[in-house]
Hints:
The chain is mainly α.
Amino acid sequence: MQKKTLDNIKKYLSYTIISILVGAGIFVFGTFKPNFWIVEKIEKRYEIAYEEKLVAFEEDYLKKLQNIGFTEPAFVYNDKQTFIKTMYKCIDYANFSLEKEKRVPSSILVAMAMVESANGTSRFANEGNNLFGIRTWDDNVPQMKPRGIPNAKFGVKKFPSKCSSVVEVIRILNNHPAYEEFRKARNAEKDYRIMLDGISAWSTNEKYSAIIYQTIVDNKLP
């Protein structure tokens, strides 16, 4: 009887040790050699959840403005100067129901729109009302594919109006983890150049922050 009990204990310990070793192997392999299909799937789920949250934000925002009779300004322009002027009107509209600490400096938004949309002349600006090249990975969201990449996994999001894309870029800069350093610099009332370092993730161009800063300077954006 005692021998049988000892055998059972040994067998239990053996199974336990094997289970621990297998679990450890799976953990190590998953950490250092991840399944890229799973990683991609998780990233896509994150993007879709982010899109859903964003849509809810936009709907709530527009309802607030409509309830007080404040309507979106017409986005009419025919050259760089009128584009800049119209951008400021749109930013004032977007800022109306935002707390002061959540507002993005107007000059940064104008410069980004100028660079990303070539002063409102790009295909994405004209056909999709997207002034910032904002992307989506959700197939259910209206979008445009980049020319030459018809099978791209992402699309450039289409908006009902150009001001809608301004509302969204403000929302992204205020919430997306990639722009946390921008928010910290803004909250600390740092110099523009320090804030601009925090938006470098917007573009794959490593000189993006410097380009936006130079656009602000060259056009004397307030």
